[in-house]
Amino acid sequence: MAISAKERKLSRLGSGKAVNGGGGGSFGARGGHRSPAAGGRRRLFAVFFVFLCAGAVVFGGVHAIGASFRPVLLKAWPSATLNALSSERRVQQAGGNGAGTVSASVQIRHAVALPDHLLVILGDGSLLPAPGQFECLYSTANSTQLCRRPLSVAALPDGPSLVHCPAGPSEMAVSLSLSQSPPVTPFQWDQLVYTALLDSRDNSTVVFAKGMNLRPGRLGVPSRYECVFGRDLSKPKLVVTSPVVSAAQETFRCVTPVRIRRYLRMTADGNINRNSDGKPMLVSIRTKGRGSSTLPSIAQPEPLPRYNRHRHTRHRQQKVHSMCVCTMLRNQAQFLREWIMYHSHIGVQRWFIYDNNSDDGIEEVLGSMDPSIYNVTRHLWPWMKSQEAGFAHCALRARESCEWVGFIDIDEFLHFPGNQTLQDVLRNYSSRPRIGELRTACHSFGPSGRTKIPKKGVTTGYTCRLAAPERHKSIVRPDALNPSLINVVHHFHLKEGMKYANVGQGVMLINHYKYQVWEVFKEKFAGRVATYVADWQDEENVGSRDRAPGLGTKPVEPEDWPSRFCEVYDTGLKDFVHKEFTDPQTGSLPW
User: Are residues 127 and 184 in the same domain?
Assistant: First the structure.
């Protein structure tokens, strides 16, 4: 089907290439008449071509007697990188492990230099072997080449594959030994727009960015920024700008221009194709005024589930799930089954798991769980120290299908010490439309005298805790959240007119297994996911409640660690778990 002039104009958005207006450049466009001289020249050329082919067969055949023909593939890569690839490939082929295969399907889209490693993002449809079957390649400005094994590989069916490479030298380009893509120069993580979502409710784009350094828990001044859309953000004449309507922490919300909405809709419907250069539509944040600058971006605006504008009527339709959970984790696979199975039993219906660079087999654990019983979605979230942005991202994704969403960690378990259930609590507050958040207290449990990970799980293994609750966590209505999506320590700011409610400890609370055996607890020193919380090894805020009191900043086990944080013995959740989950025949628990 022919596309309109307007569609052709949209398809050129962000491209610096001129479009021919239909001049006399194509063969045969001026009619079918040929001159006799032209015909004679063609016949002479044909005779000459046949003569050359015959000579090639004769002389080539003489050369080929007793020898095999070996075609050579030439690559238009920088020679230094090509040499590195060739030498590495010869080594791999000599080892016989099949790692020398180059796949045309493996296309590098971006690379990002994170604080402790290098992230390589591949194009959709890129298929990767195991990490031990290819190499990360580094090329520096002085033509030095390095080859290192990747740390891990992560891939999901509905998104790009991710390769985690060891950190390389500064000012280098990176590629993979099995990819035909040329090396790419990594973006710096601390100055980057890294993901974006399209919100059809208000025709806005929610942009997540590092580098603007907005203060935690406070609104920024949106008039200082604008959003920039285009395929090549370095060309001011080929971008579209729009105003930012809210700015907070790492989250910016701006108006999605009509032109961009139309273009993205037509691209999704297949009515127009990308430019020949293959560049996707990107969005970034630009500061306004004197010294204006635009952040580098790898963020392609992704659509959220479509919003049904007729849903909110007097006869309000119930959402698919009454209770969902969002969490962000790293290397917690061994505790995942217990956490999901327990919360499924008490009434959680949907899980959004944001995987922050796990390499401990989380995909195998989730793959072993029956998807008809456990509705779990794993979302790759490689962005370090960005928990608040991840929770905002999750709140938007959960909004259309979840009435309530709990933001809790993998070592936190909802507990109902009285006679009420989770569904009783949600039903009670769902009838109060001005309540947008339920706050519940957290009890922090210690090692409970243990030195080894309890074989039957954390809920039955740790039974001694601190007497006073520490902070509280939230269950929120995603429809009630402030459009800025500000959140701090699992709490969101609400829309004007919405309120929170404190749920009594006799009704609902959280058992937080915060201080487990040292083997588990010491992993906290590897880093924190929260943006505005210092890592455990940093000499900063040493006395904060986010740390273990008296522990300091070194991952050295205190002699009395097993007996710490033990003031009250509490077997309430342990007793409930044994009653509800223990197999009467074997005495075992399902996880």
Answer: yes
Residue 476 and residue 402 in one domain? yes
Pairing mode of beta strands 376-380, 301-303: unpaired
Sign of the torsion angle spanned by Cα atoms 302, 303, 305, 307: positive
Say how far apart CA 358 and CA 335 lie, in whole Å.
13
This prediction has a pTM of 0.80
3-state secondary structure of 152: strand
Distance between CA atoms of 241 and 257, rounded to whole angstroms? 8
pLDDT tens per residue across span 288-342? 988 889 999 999 999 987 755 445 544 456 899 999 999 999 999 999 999 999 9
Length reported for the chain: 591
CATH number of the structural domain spanning residue 213: 2.60.40
Helix (H, G, I), strand (E, B) or coil at 155: coil
Residue 538 tokens read as 């940093």
Q: Which amino acid is at 273?
A: N
For residues 258 and 151, state if they share a domain. no
CA distance linking residue 537 with residue 522, whole number of Å: 11
440 and 386 in a single domain? The answer is: yes
Do 343 and 246 lie in a common domain?
no
Full residue range of the structural domain in which residue 294 is found: 192-269+279-303
Report if residue 539 sits inside a domain: no
- Work out the number of other CB atoms within 10 angstroms of the CB of residue 82: 15
- Phi, psi values for residue 496, rounded to 5°: -60, 130
**In 10 A of CB 316, how many CB atoms?**
9
Domain total in the chain: 3
Residue 479, judged by CB atoms within 10 A of its CB (0-12, 13-18, 19+), counts as middle
Strand segments (E) across 290-341: 301-303, 321-329
End-to-end CA distance of the chain: 56
**Per-residue pLDDT reduced to its tens digit, 433-469:** 999 999 999 999 999 999 999 999 999 999 999 999 9
Burial letters for 269-308: b for 16+ Cβ neighbours within 10 Å, e otherwise?
A: eeebeebeeeeebbbbbbeeeeeeebbbbbbebeeeeeee
Give the integer Cα–Cα distance in Å for 129 and 117.
20
Consecutive H or E run containing 429: helix 422-430
23 within domain boundaries? no
Residues 138 and 247 in one domain: no
576 is written with which tokens?
């409930």
The reply to whether 181 falls in a domain is: yes
The helix or strand, by DSSP H or E, that contains position 342, with its residue range, turns out to be helix 333-346
Where a domain ends, among 188, 215, 231? Answer: 188
Q: Is residue 309 part of a domain?
A: no
State whether 167 and 216 are in the same domain: no
